[in-house]
Protein 1
Amino acid sequence: MRNAGVWSEGVVRAARGEPDVSAVPTPVPGQGDLRFHRGMVTAMALVLVAGFVLQLAMGRSSFGAPPVVHLHALVFMGWVAIVVAQAWLAAGGQPRLHRALGGLALAWLLAMLVVGPLVTIAAVRTGRVPFFFQPQYLLLADPAILFGAAGLVIAAVGLRHDRAWHPRLQIGAFMMLMGPGIGRIIPMPLLGAHAFEIASAIPVIFALIGIARDKRVHGKAHPAWAWSIGVLAVVLIAVRLVAYSPVGDAVHAAAVAGSPAAGSDGRAYPPPPPL
């Protein structure tokens, strides 16, 4: 009876000179979005990796860093690989592999939450903070950005069955972690006291691209983009307020206690490297 009704409606439409919409194949919901998100994540990963490759090619970094730095690079670049693989599996119609890799991604996220703060604390304690960052600020800003991104990932996992929220929140988390790569491309020493915020805000361009695409394809932007940008903004504002307060002073003093940096001024910029 249902088919007969559809057929009758088609006949009526044909008699009126209207197109028979029942004969038009229905597209798979969200498939175009998944391909777009795959392209976004791939482009973001290429930009991120390009920043580190550029630094290595210009001789500003080397493989002579302490072991904790190499561990940090392994863990965080591994996360980039996982995010890219997840985007390609989702767009390629491989839900089982996507879900299986998602379990590994959660375990990997826990490793990032441990290794990330460790490498920042080690840099502050050993005087290896870049000369355009105040140690006290970096000590709070790096972990705060990481935990903010982790919050978006956890939200995305909680909404893993929602094909609109899940990928957009994952892209938002990836966006928050792009600062180190962007900072190796732009002239950080020339950006003054807000160099960290600028490097962290530039990746918002990708969220704006997502907003523009949503408006063009769906008629309005998905709220996940606003949430992602909002989390980043709140983190940066909170860090700016806390870092230059007695709380920031106390955190820095506790972090450098018993190290060569003990007793140093956490608000003072390190000297630039010799030319």
Protein 2
Amino acid sequence: MRVLVAPDAFGGTLTAPEAARAIIEGWHRHAPDDVLTQAAMADGGPGFVDVLHTALGGDLVAVTVVGPVGAEVPVTVLHHGGTAYVESAQACGLHLVATPDPLHASTYGVGQAVAAAVDAGARRVIVGLGGSATNDGGAGLLAALGATADVPLDGGPAALAEITAIDLSTARSRLAGVELVIAADVDVSLLGMFGATKTFGPQKGLSDEQIVQVDGWLDRFVVAACGSSPAERRVADAKGAGAAGGLGFALMLLGGTVVSGIELVAETVGLTTQAAAHDLVVTGEGTYDFSSRAGKVVYGVATVAAAAARPCIVLAGHVLVGSREMRAMGVESAYAVADLVGSEASMGEPYRHLSDLAQRVARTWSPQRLD
């Protein structure tokens, strides 16, 4: 049996390559004769640069930038040909914040990384969005590229409470002649009931009351940047504008175009061809839930598997969707580490527990041998 193993990173516990290796190791304990192929994936969030570097080669350039809450952090920019790849999570990721501070966390470091890529000669910059600790609408990124306003742009959403005017001319000039591509991990808009703050604010530490407040501040930001009419504000309603707490919106203001992060990575690694050459596709992520359908790795991989008429299964830390929802996403079955060892224990030794889960799942999908 030929099995393609194409997981995402597991929420700060395992990188995508580590998750793939754990699955392969466990599967082989049950079915040593099966041929398993590793195809670690990313959707624009954590692991974006590493996965693309593995597929493309190129040069990795280290840059030091300001992290989401002020401390300096290292960022690695991938240069391949005339294109630079920037992973926003390296500069403003949730994993960089010991204590969440979503009211003040800033995307300033992402702008610094983009500037470094342009200064190094890139004429095309692809920015992977996902996994951020920020919800500032990308105001910090704009500040790092030279934008100015009547309030500080690098102080998180709270600093935008009284904004009335913003000048983007310097930031736009900074990127003149550069093609800007936004590889988004989700297709949500910026504002409202289905926007960035409402959808992802809780996981970044925002309370229900703060969600309403922050959405109001971002609304003021949109009016200052775009205008108040529905036609002028249209960019805030675009798919992907809410990715990474609104980084998508800021990059669109600078002329960026949105693409699906998972589709970009899938095309780069040749996922369609690989899926067709295997009998089963295995993917996974830390938590498999309803947000997975909004542009995440699991949904993207399942879509590719379905197009190749191959079954797709999910191995995850937690599974929070039912069988009907799985089928709607193109997933045959999903299996959770938490169901095997419990939620608390699943975080303790993630590699071992995921490997053990893969061994058990192999009994169902590759049952030619008894353990």
Protein 3
Amino acid sequence: MLTAPLIEKMDIYPVKIPLIRPFRFALETVTDCESVLVRIHLSNNLDGWGEAAPDLAITGESWRTALSILEYEIKPRVLGRDISAYSDILNEIDRAILGNPSAKAALDIAVHDALAKNAGLALNAMLGRAAHSLETTQTVGLESREETIRQARRLREEGASRIKFKIGSEPEDDVERIRAVRETFGDNFHITVDANQGYSVRQAIRALRHMEPFDIDFCEQPVHHSDIDGLAEVREKSSIPITADESVHSPGDALKVIQQKAADMINIKLMKSGGIHAARKIAAIAEAADVPCMVGCMVETKVGIAAGCHFATSQSIVKYADLDSHVTLKEDPAKGGVELKGSSERLEDGPGLALAIDETLLRKVLVQTS
């Protein structure tokens, strides 16, 4: 009888990578990718890579807390374990550790990468449905009208057919920015908007009504994540479809949003859910209710983005993707995995995530913790 490989080693690498330009949205301004890369090594000499991309405002974690949880709580629970029992391992960690979803996601992604390599399959093929590419939005932050136009022009010239614009500041300013984009570039590309909880219910309803003429595909998270009743009210009074993002971290959250008819769509992020294992449960709940999903990202390297792409392309209920943050980094120690051109994100051929880590660059961006 064949024996499954064991998890023999787990290496943890906190990294800090500057962005090409600061990225502003309603909750904060981000200047660096501060994440934690994880490598597990199996007894058959295969490796798996994962990433934690925490955010205090969204996941309730920093890179320091993710690093600590990974080093002192998760690592001791996985060393020596049979990787084929990954579901038991991940469920045990969920029971033992409340929250900390991006730290859990780092292990989850690494385990899935290693499992797919062990099977000789691309990760999405192992998950049951392999596509080689997907369409993704590219994102313009919460900028001035002039800078919004400048960034949108660059993206359109590069072939982007789907652009997301961050909103959630003053509703009148946001409306004028979106109006200017449509007047400047016309109607032959898709626009989505994302308020990141920046509006009150009243502001959201007013802003979205004024944006109705601009052919908006959908609006993400217009109101505070805990205000499900408010989200439902915005959805009822807006002709622009509403997507729940920060309101949905877990399968239970998804069930609540769907039961209260608070959103037309759910944004699944591996860093919010705790990884692929839990994200598949969210997708299954949404599929049972016939609620479409999108897959989004935090500020991540290609490790997290590739994992998001493999998950997105394995789920038929996923209709949209926002998996572009790797192109905002000045450098990325992860090579391969995915390649973004315009709005097309192509997955590289190969087992697992199909990427490698540049060890020299990894050392350059490594955060010294002692």
